[in-house]
Design brief:
CATH topology of the largest domain: Beta-Lactamase
Largest sheet: 5 strands, antiparallel
Strand content: 15-25%
Helix content: 40-55%
CATH architecture of the largest domain: 2-Layer Sandwich
Number of strands: 19
Number of helices: 16
CATH superfamily of the largest domain: PAS domain
Radius of gyration: 37 Å
Number of domains: 3
Low-confidence stretches: 540-545
Length: 588
């Protein structure tokens, strides 16, 4: 039957499906009223529950944010920072203890939601303040907790945990439930860890708020994690409410109707945005203040239902006619994104398949054209890089050979040998058998050879410090990126200042980019000269493979806009930052 309909002409399909939809409309009308009424009631109650849970979640987040802000006050407290810096042994210094506890007491008195504040120094000594005691803190257990590694990975950020995994205990309140904010306190100057801060919020603080919201409706609110473990339990544990929580929750919030001991309830949930915690509300449907009422306008809607179903044939037509057309549109979008997959064409003889065949032919032609254009662009890009590469100033080679000749004439064989070896190493690394890509290690070796030559020529007046991450040494990069920057630092910075100078080369990875920073303590330059360099305007006698050529090479090869930044101050030196992409494989 289905095959017969599909092979009909489109005009016949429209007439057939029109009458089929008309018959179905009469059958569905009788059951529509009861279904709509039930859905309407559930939606209204669910909407009211969602508003309530959203309001609760908002206020809970305000409470937790308030605690975060108080943790910032401790973190940036200069007295606490200075006291923690002075700790140099596992023994507690009474003066230091008094300073830290003074700040903690001030915070406890100001923070109404905070019941306990603990600071554990690098020896896990405990400095604390609390509203209700006694409290036992066992700092030596911290490194065995699951949240300790998470805190290290957070790099100074704060997060909330349920209890503290036995780090804190309450002898007189052994069943005490609470949540804690933990974070590292780092030295604001060196970023080294000084201590661990733990702020505690009692369960009763949140339960009292739940009671206010619940009011006369006998609702229960609690917090669980994604694994279903209680974080904040219901105030009255008359049921194990977790068994009624929807197992498969869609999205960050929602609701579901459940039956608890024969009573209809609405289970409303919302992700708190704090860790993986979920706020749950169990609200009786007959006590949330919403009465089931069937709107009068729906009566009119039902009366016209037959007319609506007369047009259901359009939905079926969408499946038989417009759905295939939608696939054509989808494939067009895939072509825009660069994916040239062929559209499936079945054996039916109709207008849709004719369109698909024509589209496939057109798409194949476009694919070939794009491939051709890409190949031409690669050739153009390679030629541009080769032209820029050819601009390397040969004067360096000439000047070095003159220096070698002079050293030979004065029989300074050792310096002559060192300069010759360095020159060979420099050009071996820079030429790299004609390849454009070298490792970071080879690029640094090229710079070291270059500096060796310059120091022989200029009596070891140039000091260079290398601070390059070991993990990036084996990564690939476009060659001769750092040499022009170092050359400028020497000739236009240090030499103009006289009496030698210091150059620092720093390299590290930042996500999908490699960052290199070259700093010198030369004479520096003003903004006007920086702008001239960025525009490619060179001064007389200072031509060559300079920063402008470097910018062109990096921009062309890595497709990066503004890859070079220059910061300089006259008389104080210059800092040049270069951004390049991380290459996959060995490059071209």
């Amino acid at each position: 039957m289905v095959r017969l309909i599909k092979n009909m002409k489109i005009q016949i399909q429209i007439i057939f499906l029109y009458f089929l939809a008309l018959i179905l409309s009469f059958l569905l009308t009788f059951s529509a009223i009861s279904v709509i009424n039930k859905k309407y009631t559930e939606q209204e109650v669910g909407a009211a529950g969602m508003q309530t849970i959203e309001a609760i979640n908002l206020n809970l987040n305000l409470i937790l944010e308030n605690v975060r802000q108080f943790s910032d006050l401790i973190y940036f407290d200069s007295n606490v920072q200075e006291a923690l810096r002075q700790i140099d042994s596992s023994s507690i210094n009474p003066v230091i203890q008094q300073t830290i506890q003074k700040s903690l007491v001030r915070m406890i008195l100001s923070g109404e939601y905070i019941s306990t504040a603990n600071i554990f120094d690098i020896y896990y000594n405990d400095y604390n303040s609390y509203k209700i005691g006694p409290i036992i803190a066992e700092g030596e257990k911290i490194e065995d907790t699951g949240w300790y590694q998470k805190m290290k990975d957070a790099e100074g950020g704060s997060f909330f945990i349920h209890k503290s995994e036995s780090v804190l205990s309450f002898p007189t309140r052994k069943e005490k439930n609470y949540i804690s904010l933990v974070r590292e306190i780092c030295d604001q100057e060196t970023y080294e860890r000084l201590a661990i801060l733990m702020l505690t919020i009692d369960e009763e603080t949140l339960q009292s708020y739940f009671r206010e919201v619940s009011g006369p409706y006998k609702s229960s609110f609690f917090i669980v994690d994604k694994a279903g473990n209680y974080i904040i339990t219901p105030e009255e544990m008359t049921h194990d409410w977790k068994q009624y929580i929807p197992g498969e929750r869609t999205g960050d919030s929602g609701y579901e109707t459940v039956t608890v001991n024969g009573r209809k309830m609405i289970c409303v949930y919302q992700n708190m945005g704090v860790e993986d915690w979920i706020l749950i509300g169990m609200m009786p449907m007959n006590e949330v203040g919403i009465q089931s009422s069937f709107p009068s306008y729906l009566v009119i809607l039902i009366a016209g239902l037959n007319l609506i179903f007369m047009f259901l044939c359009s939905i079926m037509l969408s499946k038989l006619i417009f759905s295939p057309l939608a696939k054509v549109v989808k494939h067009m979008k895939l072509v825009e994104q660069g994916s040239f997959s062929r559209m499936e064409v079945d054996g039916r003889q109709n207008e849709i398949n004719t369109l698909k065949s024509g589209f496939n032919q057109m798409m194949g032609a476009i694919e070939q054209l794009i491939l051709q254009v890409k190949e031409e662009e690669k050739i153009i890009l390679k030629n541009e890089l080769d032209i820029i590469q050819a601009q390397i100033n040969p004067h360096f080679l000439y000047n070095t050979l003159d220096a070698v000749s002079a050293l030979a004439l004065i029989n300074d064989n050792e310096s002559c040998f060192k300069m010759t070896q360095a020159l060979g190493s420099f050009y071996r690394n820079s030429l790299n058998s004609g390849k454009d890509i070298v490792s970071v290690k080879d690029e640094i070796a090229c710079i070291k050879s270059y500096i060796t030559i310059l120091n022989i020529r200029y009596d070891d007046k140039i000091m260079v410090t290398y601070d390059v991450e070991e993990k990036i040494m084996s990564m690939q990069m476009l060659k001769l990126i750092l040499q022009p920057v170092v050359e400028n630092a020497v000739h236009h910075g240090i030499q103009e200042k006289g009496n030698g100078g210091q150059i620092t080369i720093k390299g590290y990875q930042d996500e999908d980019e490699l960052i290199f920073i070259v700093t010198d303590d030369g004479c520096g330059m003003d903004e006007e000269r920086i702008e001239a360099i960025m525009r490619g305007e060179t001064q007389t006698g200072k031509n060559g493979f300079g920063l402008y050529s470097l910018i062109q090479r990096v921009s062309l090869y890595y497709q990066i806009d503004n890859p070079v930044m220059i910061h300089s101050e006259v008389g104080s030196g210059t800092e040049v930052t270069i951004r390049i992409g991380v290459l996959d494989g060995e490059g071209a």
